[in-house]
Write a structure and sequence with these properties.
Number of helices: 6
Oligomer: single chain
Number of strands: 22
Distance between the termini: 28 Å
Order of helices and strands: EEEEEEEEEEHHHEEEHEEEEEEHEEEH
Strand order of the largest sheet: 1-2-22-21-20
Length: 353
């Protein structure tokens, strides 16, 4: 293991790579961005498996403890079935609410990306509940966004300016929709409703619903027209200069919801993805208690710096063993690695930032 201490005094242990691609046809290009469910000493890992041509399914492996893999399926667990999923089901996250597992993922048709989810009671068979993110063209989205120009962040204004400057509507002819990614369920209902983090570029927002039927075009028109009310975290720091997005499912602690998210930094070497942390109020997750001023960890190792996409650490799941929080992440869009941090040390730092 490699120990890394940054200026915010969080002692992070990098345990290295635990899963690589294989010669199996469904995962011969890469494996990364795993969804994690912990049940006592067992860790279930549902990961994005990519084959030649950049087609994605979800694979499965099981761990004994945080690091020891004892089972790995030779076939994908969850595969594309709908037209929206033609190119793949990507970047899964998973939580358990009651007796039901909620698997959220990005549905990619080769052009558009939407957020969707499915449920299971046994981690073997899944029932799809469809797309739960908005379906607006860039032109439709820009018309809704500019309704609250006085309230929206500078980066959202920049996004609208980009739309005007490059005349994206003329180029796209209404066939390409605004991407909404990083769909992450809270592991319990809040005020009686499902709570879900998602990302309309460049911030992290929250939405609530009782049923996917609630998420109508009218719902989304009102939501985006008042997007500022739903943003839980804006890009703010140097390592967030491009954008941020949801990462691991929120962790309930006595001090608040601990959220491990990812940030993306513009640099002369291209984009750099970091793992970051923030703490939110338990009953009102739009209320920020604290956030790290620096990344929790960044690409420093060869397996994080070189791969299908260079300079990427992309956290998507956690497991807690005693006081050590294990963070599972995609490394360079090629492999799965693990880091850990003492959860009490991390919470104490967040309470004071």
């Amino acid at each position: 293991p490699k120990f890394i201490k940054n200026q915010t005094m969080h002692l992070v242990t990098k345990h290295g790579v635990i899963l690589e691609k294989t010669d199996n046809s469904f995962e011969n290009l890469g494996v990364f961005n795993p969804a994690i469910i912990q049940e006592e000493n067992t860790v279930h890992m549902l990961y994005r498996a990519v084959r030649d041509g950049n087609f994605s399914t979800i694979g499965y492996s099981r761990l004994d403890g945080p690091l020891k893999i004892i089972e790995r399926s030779t076939k994908p667990l969850f595969v594309p079935e709908t037209p929206e999923e033609f190119q793949g089901v990507e970047d899964p996250r998973i939580v358990k609410i009651g007796d039901t597992y909620y698997l959220s993922y990005a549905a990619y048709d080769g052009i558009n990306v939407f957020g969707a989810y499915a449920t299971s009671t046994d981690l073997k068979t899944f029932e799809r509940h469809g797309i739960i993110t908005p379906k607006f063209t860039f032109e439709e989205y820009s018309n809704l966004i500019k309704k609250n120009f006085e309230k929206i962040s500078d980066l959202h204004i920049m996004f609208y300016d980009l739309f005007i400057r490059y005349r994206l509507a003329d180029l796209m002819k209404g066939k390409i929709y605004v991407w909404d990614k990083n769909i992450v369920f809270f592991p319990k209902k809040i005020n009686g409703k499902f709570a879900v983090l998602h990302r309309l570029f460049p911030s992290i927002q929250i939405m609530y619903f009782n049923s996917p039927k609630d998420l109508t075009p009218a719902f989304w028109k009102d939501y985006i027209s008042n997007l500022q009310k739903h943003i839980v975290l804006h890009p703010k720091c140097k390592h967030e200069s491009s954008h941020i997005g949801g990462g691991c499912p929120p962790i309930e602690t006595k001090f608040g919801w601990l959220v491990i998210y990812h940030s993306v930094q513009n640099s002369t070497d291209g984009l750099i993805y970091h793992a970051c942390a923030a703490l939110f109020h338990l009953n009102n997750p739009t209320q920020l208690i604290g956030r790290l001023k620096e990344p929790l960890f960044s690409p420093t190792e060869h397996y994080e710096k070189k791969g299908y996409v260079n300079n990427v650490v992309f956290p998507t799941g956690t497991a807690l063993f005693k006081d050590e929080l294990y963070i599972y992440y995609g490394a360079a869009d090629s492999r799965i690695a693990v880091s850990s941090v003492n959860i009490n040390t991390l919470l104490n730092a967040l309470k004071h930032n």
